[in-house]
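New to this. Look over this protein:
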Amino acid sequence: MRNLEIDVAGLSLGVGGSQFQPLERREGVAVTLGPRTHFFDRPGRSVCRWTGTKTVPRQSPHPLPRRSRLMNEIAVMGRILFGGGDVKVNMIVTQAQQREILLTAGDGNVVECIDLAKLAREGAPPLLFLQPAYLCSSDNVSFRSVPCDSSAVSWSRAPYVYKTCKVRDLSKAAILCLSGRTNVWREILRPGQSRDFALGNIVAVTANIASKLRPSNQYCADDFKVVSLGGRASGDEDPPQMSLRTLKKGEIKRMAREFRASLKTLFESIRAREGFFVCEASNVSDKPGYVYLQLNKSGFYGGSGLLGVVVKIASLFFRSSNFLLGH
């Protein structure tokens, strides 16, 4: 076990400075904050911290729009029911001196520290990642909860995932720490490349990765033809926010088709026993793509909120019946 005080000896950070240092076996991360600095972390992960810090609960790591009280209540209900709405995590703040905080990745988990600024300099688009995989992030990392399309559902097996926003200042490290079971591995997909992954092992992908479910006993060389979509598939920018008034009839139909496709993919993932399907991921852009996967998994995720509970129950029901499986 590392000694936190020895590791940070001689480190001097200014106002707004931070450093994230994984422990020797990556079972946690030591965060060093400069004076009057803050970072975000998952509730319940802080193990030890020096005095002179405080926790501010239920903070959002993204800008909050101005909206009415009714819309705020709708956002709260979206988070409780579906795992959407505004993201709410803890914020740890230092006062006038440099301080250290020790976080755990969780029982049986390891931490993976990702520099989003470095990925952006390499040309990679924003990152999509599972909500329970989030551990902590620096103050310049912003992410939101976004609904999954049919591609994201195939690897997340959930209705919502987190998506990072574009990093504005690439000269400063923007650290996002994710946790996974046993070990976290990064797979690089060059433009046009594809990989097959086991269901439930992917914890994060860049926005230019398109994926789908495929029976593990089927293979065809032309089964998934990769077409470069340029900037559109890269996901560099979030789509503009639209209201019901601005939606056209064609746009509503397109959203309905995408919703049906997402439900179909989620249903196939729910009723599939392990090993019957694989997640085929492909880089559909002219930029590098990244897939982060955990070596082991802890069971079916299904998503957060009450809908996630329903999905997990449905998964147990379908997987316990060979007749309903249809294989």
